[in-house]
Specification:
By secondary structure, the protein is an alpha+beta fold. The chain has a single domain, classed as 3-Layer(aba) Sandwich (Cytidine Deaminase, domain 2), CATH 3.40.140. Helix content is about 35%, strand content about 20%. It contains five helices and five strands, in the order αββαβαββαα. It starts with a helix and ends with a helix. The model has no long low-confidence stretch (mean pLDDT about 95). The structure holds tetrahydrodeoxyuridine. Tetrahydrodeoxyuridine (THU) binds next to helix 2.
């Protein structure tokens, strides 16, 4: 994936973070997923007063895509607050694994500046994949 596309996806993740609902942690996260059909779905983390009902930005973006019939992904950009590299939590990694191992996770800072990237396979070296149940 070229630099321009990564920048576009990071910008969409920043946009997604603007609608985050994070009054408890105040930790604003944004994500944007690029489908193989070229569509981008973005989202922010959505917290709940019953903390366990909180959903991370990555899953909001992925579920928006899946609910629109998109299950093949090229990449997901994730941005967190500040300038430190944010990596997806383990639950979100597992949700990514559901849709393949060879797609890209692009990490950025709160302004959408590129910080690095790696594949889902690299993030989850010993994955539990759908083939465990589907053969
Ligand atoms: N969060 C995400 O949105 N993505 C991650 O990968 C890590 C954590 C959210 C969940 C919660 O709303 C806040 O960050 C603090 O954990």
């Amino acid at each position: 994936m070229n630099k321009e596309m990564k920048a576009t996806l990071l910008k969409a993740a920043v946009e997604g973070s603007k609608n985050a609902h994070c009054p408890y942690s105040k930790y604003r996260v944004g994500a944007a997923v690029l489908t193989k059909t070229g569509k981008i779905y973005q989202g922010g983390n959505i917290e709940n007063v019953s903390y366990g009902a909180t959903v991370c930005a990555e899953r909001v973006a992925i579920w928006k895509a899946v609910s629109e019939g998109e299950k093949e992904f090229e990449a997901i950009a994730v941005i967190g607050p500040g300038t430190s590299e944010g990596y997806p939590c383990a639950q979100c990694r597992q949700v990514m694994v559901e849709f393949g191992l060879d797609w890209l996770v692009v990490s950025g800072d709160q302004d959408g500046n590129y910080l690095g990237d790696m594949t889902v396979r690299e993030l989850v070296p010993f994955p539990f994949t759908p083939s465990a149940l589907l053969g």
